[in-house]
Amino acid sequence: MKKNRLTIRKSIGLLLLLLGLALLLIWTAVPIYIVISNSFRKTLEMKLMPPKMLFQPIFSHYQKLLSLDRFGIYFRNSAIISISTTAFTIILGSMAAYGLKICTSSIGRRISNVLLLGKMVPSITILIPLFMMMNRVHLTGTYLAPILTLSCLSLPFVTWLMTGFIADIPNELIEAASIEGCSRVSIFAKIIFPLLRPAVASAVILVMQSSWNELMFSLQLTNLKTYPLTVGIARYVGAVSVDWGKCSAAATITMAPIIIIGFFMQKYLVSGMTAGAVKG
Amino acid sequence: MKQKTFEWSLERGDLLPLLMMLPTLLVIIFIMVVPLAYGIFLSFFTLGFGGKTTVDSFVGLANYSQFFNDPVALKVTLNTMLFSFGAIAGDLLLGTLISLLLINLKSFTSSIIRPIVTMPLLVSPVVVGLIWRYIYDPKGILYWFLGKFGIGIQQFPGVTSASTALLSTIIAHWWQVTPFVIIVLTAGLLSIPVEYYEASKIDGAGPWRTFFQITLPQLTSVYVVILLVSGVDTIKIFDIIYSLTGGGPNNSSLSLSIYAYSQAFEQSNLSYSIAISVLTMILTFCIFGIPFIRHNLGKGNR
Fold first, then answer.
1. In the predicted model, what is the mean pLDDT of residues B154-168?
2. B:152-211 residues touching chain A, CB 8 A cutoff
């Protein structure tokens, strides 16, 4: 009898688990699925409820987007800005982290923590004065303006992440290399930096993600020539009637690259995000 | 911990560490520190869009007192705090539930489900706002689904009514940020030694007791980190609301960042906008900054 009760309890548990998983997948995936599938639907078919699972895909929304609304250019701008920002932050951040390591004082660890205080500063607080400064030196509308700004937003975190990784590198390794006659700069380039690969991978996906997706600074620091995708989309939002076909296509173009990269770099995404919280 | 003599290498004429740090420090100084100081300075002046300051335009604290006499500003502050509270509470609750749901999955199933669950985190917030704007469409999928349970636009007006617009933006935020909580909590859960659970099993503790007596206390510091990181982000919320409701209807979902932004770039009240943004920073600092410093710097000393 008791055994019977146990199996019933177990199967109820399994049922609840499956139900939970189904709800979770619906909650997460349906909003994304709807947008992607709508970008291939005729505008009239979007209004049909429930949405048809099988339909004849069309590409006219994308054609309009690329030919009339310059989304090809926005895509290129987003790529230029986010790739440069990522490279720039990783090089600078790992250099700074190494500098913190070789400066033989306890200030080292502290500076990287102080840098994190930058997170407390809301973007809006620096946006307006920064915009005025950038305007005065004629940097608004260049790629350099968003690249520098987005780098500044990511640098504290990247430096801090790298500092943690460098601290884990055994001192013996560095000592051995310096006995071999390596200068400290070449120790960094030849030994430390290659060992930082997992941290670099985490930084790549996290910085790429945040700079590709950034909106507020880009709205003001770029112009028609350097608009990234997020600004391109934000321009639709203000419109009185939204063209959902074009919007869905634009949203798909904007989110697809990062979702794909994130899918393949899942492991590093997770390790980058948890580095701070769990390892401490 | 108490090292009175800092062996700052610079004293020994060693410039290399400083040179390595210099580029990072320069970027942070020129893009963050200088604008911040400049902004605080400007907040004591009135300035037009040209941004010229003269001695005559010095107004002292007038921009700040304007804030406290502006009913919209006070409403917006309340909105922002409500958003922050609702968003964090939901993130933590949903995140905890989902991480517990996923933690016992076999590695094969979880290797399929986890990347899917993480997806919303990678979507640009401006796109998240757009996606949810489509979902909240009165003729859209949400109301089709709710209609099956007899809930229509009258029962839950979504983004169309001042009473539920803020809640609607909070829900969109849950959708995006819960995965972050799941990722971090899962790592935390996995770091709890198995022996604890075995011991509690031997003591005959049920799942509830195990959760409240072992899991939760072990995760305290993880929760603190999540609270600080996502807490700060919710006070500065801009993108999701900007594209989902634009702050409406009737300012009911307007946040401090969007209000400051529109004061600067739509109303051309630059100095007032800067004052709002400085107050936003002070608010962030008071709520999250002080615990953040105690948490982080405490660690650096260890």
1. 86
2. 175, 179-180, 183-184, 187-188, 191
